[in-house]
Amino acid sequence: MTEEHDHFHTEGCLGISRVLARIGDKWSVLIVMLLADGPRRFNEMKRMIDGISQRMLTLTLRGLERDGLVSRTVFPSIPPRVDYELTPLGHSLREPVMALGQWAQANLVGIAEAQAEFDRRSADAAAEPPLQRAAGMR
């Protein structure tokens, strides 16, 4: 590793890992992308994020709130209205998260093709007789 990466061997690495685990999970990225357009209500986000359970949305929002990336505002109405929005710290995450999301969308086809090719090669290798596999022959 280069000198600029020396901090990966310190206690700072653990902190970086925790932050990246929070902002790198699939639900957090989607929530930050949704909230980049402004405040949203819980059920609105649940409808917009395909496949997320109520429990997972709750846990993810709590984690983002705990990390200072999302704020939660309760409005005194019946039923209570709760809005979630990015904090200033959360807004600083918008650009890298949006870039990551755009990269993923732009490369979905290429990644799927690479996966299919890998799977094909793996299936071909598994079909070889054991002696040829062990000897590395094809």
From TrEMBL:
Listed Pfam families: HxlR (PF01638)
Keyword list, A-Z: DNA-binding, Transcription, Transcription regulation
DNA-binding listed as a keyword: yes
Organism (species): Ancylobacter dichloromethanicus
Gene Ontology MF term list: DNA binding
Keyword DNA-binding: yes
Transmembrane stretches, start-end: none
Name listed for the protein in its UniProt record: Transcriptional regulator
All copies of domain HTH hxlR-type, residue ranges: 13-112
Alphabetized SUPFAM superfamilies for the sequence: Winged helix' DNA-binding domain
Organism taxonomic ancestry: Bacteria, Pseudomonadati, Pseudomonadota, Alphaproteobacteria, Hyphomicrobiales
